[in-house]
Write a structure and sequence with these properties.
Elements (H helix, E strand, L loop, with lengths): L1 H34 L6 H18 L1 H24 L2 H5 L1 H23 L9 H9 L2
């Protein structure tokens, strides 16, 4: 997961900055068109600028970049913690469980953010207890 997110983050960052530069350029172009009385081209420039902004919001580029960097940071912290343990501490079941649980939580957070779902499990024990009472 670290390797795949490491390759995603620079691309998202580059795209976010590139789109920001294009947005500023289009704003300057619309001001220049208004100043030089070339208002015939102004709607096209503004439409392109608006569609670029809407597409960036639809794709949630900024949120994806923040969450990817957050996941990378958390995974790197877990890796550093694991590497700092001695060989005897690495064999301890509690430390292994801690590593697995923290990594799974990071993965769940990433999956929940991109899927838009909830990370809480549904309590099915309460449903089964109601069915048993009716028998």
């Amino acid at each position: 997961m670290i390797i795949s997110n490491s390759s995603i983050a620079p691309g998202l960052s580059l795209f976010l900055h590139f789109a920001g530069v294009i947005g500023v350029f289009l704003s300057v172009a619309s001001s220049a068109l208004s100043s030089f009385s070339l208002s015939a081209f102004l709607p096209a420039v503004l439409a392109f600028s608006g569609s670029l902004t809407d597409w960036m919001n639809y794709r949630q580029i900024e949120l994806r970049l923040i969450q990817t960097n957050s996941a990378l940071n958390a995974l790197n912290k877990s890796l550093v913690w694991w590497e700092c343990l001695s060989m005897i501490e690495k064999r301890n079941i509690f430390n292994k469980d801690t590593l697995v649980q923290s990594t799974e939580n990071i993965i769940k957070q990433q999956a929940t953010i991109f899927s838009g779902g909830s990370s809480k499990k549904r309590d099915t024990k309460g449903d089964d207890a109601d069915e048993d009472d009716g028998k």
